[in-house]
């Protein structure tokens, strides 16, 4: 299949009109129509529905459009990689990091280490939630992510790094029905508090809701908060509590103003995972950053948290 025909087809779909696409491509409209007809003949499928308003892809056209985007992106990346062969990795690498996680505390180290090793790589860092990750990774808008593992998603693969118990984070002045020296609180006692949690698309929220449902408890949601500074101010004002893994609580709420209590009866757990695409290889720059990231995470897990291979209970004890 000719990649030029695919490029023409993508431009037509994006433009919504053969006339507009022909003008943008500086190709005669009849010639562009012939290219589409050739594709339809080759694939034995009608790809576009034509009307006075323009064109719309058929179901087969939508399928081809998705594959064409991936193919053209791989071809362009191949050109870039071959041209840069033998030189130091360079280019833009995008990483998503889950808010409210231990991974968010790694941002300065990631920037520093990648900058030291690969000064020609530009890192794009963003926060994202597992529920919207699939399309971002599959469409090439993101290269990799450190997130709460949401479960299997087609088109991406997860490498679980650590399994952690969840902890209640609350203002230190709040009176709670717990043993001051125990460092734990039952899920039933936690259910008596108003909670600030991210919206339901966030895996952490889903784990908490599932835990409450399993015990027939009602979740008292005070508000949905996805800003760490705002969450800190709300808890400092004692307007509610939140639930986080211990590593995230340590990174975000390390001041004496807060109490961090492990939830028991039952314990709630979440997984932190590295997410990468499973349908196409990373660029040379992306592979270089992924190597740095893995080294950094392994070092952190060895020094502070129990590796996953020792089991969830050990990981929970270590946290």
Q: What tags apply to this protein structure?
A:
about 45% helix; about 325 residues; disordered C terminus; 3 domains; two-stranded antiparallel ribbon; 8-stranded mixed beta sheet; alpha/beta; Arc Repressor Mutant, subunit A; single chain; elongated; D-Maltodextrin-Binding Protein, domain 2
Short description:
The protein has 319 residues and is of the alpha/beta class.
Topology:
Blueprint: H1 3-15, H2 18-25, H3 29-43, E1 48-51, E2 54-57, H4 59-83, E3 91-97, H5 107-117, E4 121-127, H6 133-138, E5 144-148, E6 156-171, E7 184-186, H7 187-190, E8 195-197, H8 203-214, E9 221-224, H9 228-236, E10 242-245, H10 246-252, E11 258-264, E12 269-277, H11 284-303, H12 312-318
Structural notes for this entry:
The chain is of the alpha/beta class. It has three domains: 3-83, Winged helix-like DNA-binding domain superfamily/Winged helix DNA-binding domain (Arc Repressor Mutant, subunit A), CATH 1.10.10; 91-161 and 271-311, Periplasmic binding protein-like II (D-Maltodextrin-Binding Protein, domain 2, 3-Layer(aba) Sandwich), CATH 3.40.190; 163-270, Periplasmic binding protein-like II (D-Maltodextrin-Binding Protein, domain 2, 3-Layer(aba) Sandwich). Helix content is 43%, strand content 23%. It has helices at 3-15, 18-25, 29-43, 59-83, 107-117, 133-138, 187-190, 203-214, 228-236, 246-252, 284-303, 312-318, and strands at 48-51, 54-57, 91-97, 121-127, 144-148, 156-171, 184-186, 195-197, 221-224, 242-245, 258-264, 269-277. The strands form three sheets. Strands 3, 4, 5, 6, 7, 10, 11 and 12 form an eight-stranded mixed sheet that branches. It has a two-stranded antiparallel ribbon with strand order 1-2. α5 links the parallel β3 (91-97) and β4 (121-127). It starts with a helix and ends with a helix.
């Amino acid at each position: 299949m000719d990649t030029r025909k695919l490029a023409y087809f993508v431009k037509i779909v994006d433009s919504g009109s053969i006339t507009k696409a022909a003008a943008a491509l500086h190709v005669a409209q009849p010639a562009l129509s012939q290219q589409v007809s050739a594709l339809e003949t080759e694939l034995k499928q009608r790809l576009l529905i034509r009307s006075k308003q323009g064109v719309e892809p058929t179901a087969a056209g939508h399928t081809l459009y998705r594959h064409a985007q991936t193919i053209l992106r791989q071809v362009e990346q191949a050109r870039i990689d071959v041209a840069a062969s033998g030189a130091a990795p360079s280019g833009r690498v995008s990483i998503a990091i889950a808010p409210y996680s231990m991974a968010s505390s790694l941002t300065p180290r990631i920037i520093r280490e990648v900058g030291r090793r690969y000064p020609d790589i530009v890192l794009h860092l963003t926060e994202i939630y597992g529920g919207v990750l699939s399309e971002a990774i599959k469409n090439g808008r993101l290269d990799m992510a450190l997130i709460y593992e949401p479960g299997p998603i087609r088109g991406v693969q997860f490498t679980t790094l650590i399994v952690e118990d969840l902890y209640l984070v609350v203002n230190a002045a709040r009176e709670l029905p717990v043993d001051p020296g125990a460092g734990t609180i039952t899920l039933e006692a936690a259910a008596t508090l108003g909670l600030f949690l991210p919206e339901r698309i966030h895996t952490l929220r889903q784990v908490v809701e599932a835990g409450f449902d399993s015990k027939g408890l009602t979740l008292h949601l005070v508000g949905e908060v996805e800003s760490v500074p705002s969450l800190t101010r709300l808890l400092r004002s004692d307007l509610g509590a939140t639930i986080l893994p211990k590593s995230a609580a340590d990174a975000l709420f390390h001041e004496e103003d807060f109490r961090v209590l492990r939830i028991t009866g039952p314990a709630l757990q979440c997984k932190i995972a590295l997410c990468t695409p499973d349908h196409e290889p990373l660029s040379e720059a992306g592979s270089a950053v992924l190597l740095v990231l893995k080294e950094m995470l392994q070092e952190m897990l060895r020094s502070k948290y129990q590796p996953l291979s020792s089991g969830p209970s050990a990981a929970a004890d270590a946290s």
